[in-house]
Amino acid sequence: MLLAMSELPPCPKCASAYTWVDQGRFHCPECDHEWNTDDAAAKPTEDGPRVVKDSVGNVLQDGDTVTVIKDLKVRGASGSVKVGTKVRNIRIVDGDHDIDCKIDGFGQMGLKSEFVRKVT
Fold first, then answer.
1. CA proximity to 56, closest of 114, 98, 112, 99
2. Positive or negative, the Cα torsion across 75, 53, 87, 108?
């Protein structure tokens, strides 16, 4: 099976466009994922809504309340968000910082889910 580089499917794991074929298997140089060429014939389907988990693996949803688990420096501010700060009514978004929220004393900001824990 010979495919032009523009016909090669992107990596299903990391979406890299730099895939290559060797002995009937596709390879991704960026995440080192391998998959069968037969699997690539089927178009990838949408897995549904994005699942965002906190630092201990709890699934986060819009409107949840979380607690910051580490002091976080804030660019452009003289202080930092202290450990134990409660953040209410979060919103899940796409991007590097996957939580949008409003923190008292700092205002609107984005947080990474790896630095928060869901309050039950």
1. 114
2. positive
Question: Per-residue pLDDT tens for 77-101?
Answer: 888 999 999 999 999 998 888 999 9
With 60 as the cut, is the pLDDT of residue 116 above it?
A: yes
Pairwise CA distance, residues 1 & 15, whole Å: 21
CA distances for 14 relative to 30, 31, 44, 94, 114, angstroms: 8, 7, 13, 15, 19
Residues listed for the chain: 120
**Exposed, middle or buried, 9 (CB in 10 Å: 0-12/13-18/19+)?**
middle
Give me the residues paired with residue 17 across strands.
Answer: none
The DSSP string of 34-70 is EEEHHHHHSPP----SPPEE-TTSPEE-TT--EEE-S
Q: Provide the 10 A C-beta neighbour count for residue 10.
A: 15
At 53, the amino acid letter reads K
- Any idea what DSSP says for residue 97? S
**Half-sphere exposure for 62 (CA within 13 Å, toward CB):** 6
